Amino acid sequence: MSVFNDYDELTWVATIVGAHGIKGAVRVKYFTDTPDYYLNVELFFLESERQLQSLNVLQIRPTKSGWIVLFEEIDSRTAAEKLKSCRLLLPDDQLRPLESSEVFVHQLIGCSVEDKNGRFLGEISDVLETGANNVYEVRNGKSSFMIPDVPHVVLELDVESRRMKIDPLPGLIEETAPESNVTL
User: Edge to edge, what strands does the sheet with 154-158 contain?
Assistant: First the structure.
C-alpha cells in the first residue's frame, strides 16, 4: 500500500508509469489540462515512499498518453524501472496560473460539503473527471455519495474557506447518514 505525503508548497502534477528505452527515460502520466505548459520544466521533485528528492530534467517529450522524461540523475533502464508509481511534484509557484473560475483538483480534497440549509453532509474525498463534468465523491464516516459538478447541484464553492454548498438531487443521498444521527 502506498503512503504519500501532502506538501504545503508542492503540487503533484504527474506519476511515473514505467521505463522507456535503455538510457533511463521514464513514461509519465500527467494530471493537467495544459501539458504543453510544463514542457520546459527544469526540475521535478520525485516522491517515493521513502523520500523526496529533486531531479534535473534533461528532456520532456510529449506523447499521445503522457510524457517521456529523461532525468540527469537516472541513467539506466534498471534505475528508471525502480521509479514506477513515484509521484512528480512541482513548487506551487511553477504551476500554470489559474483563471478566476479555475481551481486545482487537490484544493478540493477535504473541503466540507453542506446542503443549502447549512447541514454538514461530509467531505470531498475524490474528484472524478468524466468528460462532461467533474463528479465529487463525498464521505461522511463510512458512507459516501457522488455529487455531479453542475450549476443546479453545486450552488457555491469557496476554496479559501474549504466549503461547498449543494442542493442534492432527490435520492442522491441516503436518508440517514450511518455514522451520524443527521437526517438528510
Answer: 143-148, 134-140, 120-129, 112-115, 163-166, 154-158
Rg (CA), the chain: 20
The amino acid at residue 40 is N
- Give the HSE-up count for residue 28: Cα atoms under 13 Å, Cβ half-sphere: 30
Domain encompassing residue 134: 105-166
Phi-psi region of 24 (alpha: psi -120 to 50; beta: other; left: phi over 0): left
pTM of the model: 0.67
Burial of 78 (0-12, 13-18, 19+ CB in 10 A): exposed
Instruction: Report the domain count for the chain.
Output: 2
Q: Name the band, by pLDDT with cuts 50, 70 and 90, for residue 4.
A: low
Q: Which pLDDT tens digit goes with each residue over 129-145? A: 887 888 999 999 888 99
Cβ-Cβ contacts under 8 Å for 38 (sequence gap 6 or more)? 13, 30, 32, 60, 90, 96
Answer yes or no: do 37 and 72 share one domain. yes
Burial of 163 (0-12, 13-18, 19+ CB in 10 A): middle
Which residue bears the cell 512528480?
88
